[in-house]
Amino acid sequence: MLEVNRISKRFTTSDGVIPAVDDISFAIAAGEFVSIIGPSGCGKSTLFNIIGGLVGDYEGQVKVSGDIIHGTHPAIGMVFQEESTFPWRTVLDNVAFPLEISGLATSERLERAQHFVSMVGLEGFERRYPAELSGGMRQRVALARTLASEPRILLMDEPFAALDEQTRLLLGDRVLQIQQQLRQTTLLITHNLTEAVQLSDRVLVMTYRPGKLKREIDIDLPHPRDSEVVSSDAFGRYVAEIWHDLREEASRGIRDDENRVLRARSDR
Amino acid sequence: MNQAHAAAATRSVTMVRTVIIVATLAAWEALALSGLLFRDVVPSLQAICSAVFRLLTAADFYFNLGVTAAEIGVALIIGGAGGLAVGILLGANRFLSRAYESLVYYLGPTPKIIFFPVMIMWFGVGSGSKIAMGAISCFFPIAISAASGIRQIDRVLIRVGLSFRASTWQMATKIYLPAMRGPLVNGMRLGLGVAIIGTLLAQTKLSNRGLGYLIIQAYSTFDMPRMYALIIVLFMLAVAANALIGRLARSRNS
């Protein structure tokens, strides 16, 4: 369904050329839920933007159903890490946004938007503005908005990063339910171990700078799943296994940050 | 208790205001009657009141009011559209911003009346040069607010629009403009204020119609009651216009 073929991306900065993503390849089958986990600074957001078509000038190919794509593609829907609802639109109008872009008639688009508002559990909040909602509710609006464009492939970049752990677990349940219901091919970018294991069929671990794929772990936990799964032994083993791989990378990231701070001090 | 306090405070504010107004009017009237100043320089309140009445019942006032309003309106449209376009360019393009933005900032507070002779030569002594003065005046605050407005747009909202494959026109009307509405409304308010100043100032300098012209005409024929009447009416109109825009801006921001 989605295929990433030998993607590399370098950024030129004042410190020289930094390889952000290095020779990454993977494929996601239709209906599969895959997470990419990596320490901060491993280039996973860059990868997200490349697949979503918002960043150009990279090596390698992104393929959807076998066709190489360039730039944004209607089959791909993106949910961003940052607060991304339109503050001047109500919940319903936010969700209707992609339908408005594709030129759907008002009555039909509001009806379809309503469907997706209900799907994320926000009935009764249609006429509210994002400022009146909590962070978790706003992220649900952003999710419903992307779902409303009915993408075959859902890309999410740490959509719950700004939320507290409990909200995150419950929203994870919701996302999984919707994903099972729509049989949507999903790629989740995250740095959260629990989230990756809770939601995914497969987890890809990335290395710290330059971002390469380090390992691939199949999560063989039963479906349907909900957040209760976090207390099972199998869940704990998966988390431990991934952390074993991730720990080394995360420590390298931290050392790198420390060195950068020290260098900055001695420059002055 | 608190309510009673608040009511008492409001009452005393009203009282202080009334006292000041009454005292000023009384001092004015005393000065007028004392004969200390030359003839009509300080006309009596009664003379001013009847001048206001005569002004508001004469057709030529409304004609000149219409001329001024039309000139300001056209100036706002021209200067506003130009300011918006330039502001968007400066805000969106780092190279243009580095090349020209400081120029806009430096020219912004310059008294635009110094361009008036040029405007007369370019656009004639009629309405053209007045509109040009108003347009130049409101161009700067609107350009500056548009530039800062476009820069304060949350980048992720633009990425959302791109990810849904919005066209350039859809990006402009559905994301950029609504996202910069606050700074734009503010810029329009400032713009209207300076457009009024620019246009009226030009009318007082060289013109044969408009409210600015009427004031200068009253002054040069030494019709002091009429001059004061015009100033009072103009003052009231400016207060009303500002209050109106303030209300519009608030209702749009909510």
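The beta strands of chain A are 2-13, 16-28, 33-37, 59-64, 67-68, 76-79, 153-157, 185-190, 202-206, 213-218.
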